[in-house]
């Protein structure tokens, strides 16, 4: 009868409505917790697969529930000695007197991206240690990327290195997004009475003078097609500032800007403005800019290929 059909319909609605309401949140939780790692077939636990055969993979817990995947590459003069060595050996080498570079990479992808491996090789060939973390939410690191969270991660890695590196110089190299992480972290350290030994800013952007399209971490949320229909703009509460220009006014470390004239993401005049601001608060001697010719085609990620780079870094 129609009465039975109506009752059945009401029953089905009563049962299905809570599921329908909670389904997007459930899917979102599963996506965040068990998200796909990119690249799909790369094993970040094996840096030798990325042609870094004197590198060890490790995991650092920066705060409860946050584990960072990190690579440590020793100077390439020690590559034979490094074969088969464990984490304790790698950590002990940090105090050998060689400078230690902490490389804060750009947005998306992982510490295994080719241009990031390229930078590690250049620095290793110069006799330097290179420590490359994947921020929370990147690569095989856990957690959701936020500006504050990335700064916490960077501070932890710096303190971890300093606790093991003795009197060795510790230098930040930030690329793209990593330039903002580097300056945020340098300023936090200044507030603690610590001045980083040096900071390299490659492909630096300035959110105060340059419109950044979209949300920097939107890639993190859209791991599966169609998610936007279930929960639009899940990053709405994930506010980003990245006040690099203001940070430069507070920094006390020597700064080297590296930029390409044909950078398709950050126009060269943006970098020149930041160099001028930083120099006005320190000095022309302590703040340098090296601009690479646009005809070389380095764009935003390719400066590591320049044959002059080792001489510049020395």
Written overview of the protein:
The chain is 38% helix and 16% strand. The protein is an alpha/beta fold and 314 residues long. The chain has a single domain, classed as 3-Layer(aba) Sandwich (Rossmann fold).
Could you state the order of secondary-structure elements as H and E? HEEHHEHEHEHEHHHEHEH
Helix content: 25-40%
Largest sheet: 8 strands, mixed
User: Class, according to the CATH hierarchy?
Assistant: Alpha Beta
What oligomeric state do the depicted chains represent? single chain
Name the CATH superfamily assignment: Alpha/Beta hydrolase fold, catalytic domain
- Tell me the structural class: alpha/beta
Shape label:
globular
The third-level CATH topology is Rossmann fold
Annotation, overall tally of beta strands: 8
Outline the low-pLDDT stretches. Answer: 17-38
Q: Spatial order of the strands in the main sheet?
A: 1-2-4-3-5-6-7-8
Mean pLDDT: 86
Based on the coordinates given, report the CATH architecture: 3-Layer(aba) Sandwich
Contiguous helical run count: 11
User: Rg, please?
Assistant: 23 Å
Number of domains: 1
Ends: how far apart?
Answer: 88 Å
Protein name: Si:ch211-117n7.7
GO biological process, one term: phosphatidylserine catabolic process
Signal peptide: 1-18
Organism: Sphaeramia orbicularis (orbiculate cardinalfish)
